[in-house]
Amino acid sequence: MAVTIKSAREIALMREAGRLLGIVHEELGRAIRPGMSTKDIDRLGEKLIRSFGCTPNFLHYQGYPASICVSVNEEVVHGIPREDHILKEGDIVSLDAGLIYKGYHSDAARTHRVGKVSPEAEKLIAVTKQSFFEGIKKARAGNHLYDISNAIDAYVTSYGYGIVRALVGHGIGTKLHEEPQIPNFAQRRKGVRLQPGMTLAIEPMINMGTAEVVWLDDDWTVVTEDGAYSAHYENTVLITDGEPEILTLPL
To answer: With a threshold of 0.85, does the pTM exceed it?
Structure first.
């Protein structure tokens, strides 16, 4: 498994790609409200990405028809935006987005509340986000890749939630998906040793109920098998000589 090590020049480009994506996510989060369609979110996201002179990396990727993956409630990931899918009070909506800046990719996801949501939904969103931060405590040079996976699993399992196994995180750089694959569930092996210059998209996908998922007939939208809510939190992360650097946060 060849994991690319980024040069200082490449890291600078990825840092900017990540910063711009962080702004996109922040703006989308502010815009979400009951009554808007998932297609409205996609249109706004694409407009923001292109306003920075960047390209949405999800658009037409392996045939995906939109710039932003918009997944509501039991939809885990890859929800296709639609004019007739209207957000309502109490929904939760996961936005997965990425962009290309001067040939380099960024990738991040957030789960947002639509108006006031149930305490159960609030807890799911909070645990999913925190599981990412539990994972990156282990994202340090000299540790192994699956130390991240094991830390996410240990935290999430303590809440009794299901960790999606059919989908995982990944390396990222000049391609949206590079080696290595990064499971969010415990592994028996160690995985590759982490080195400075590695860039990883770490993305826990956590279900309120079972871990099992199914694909809808559109061949993209992944939903929980039991219909329970799902949340998603992702950032592009740089391995350094010290603390990991989250690239996809607005500065």
So the answer is: yes
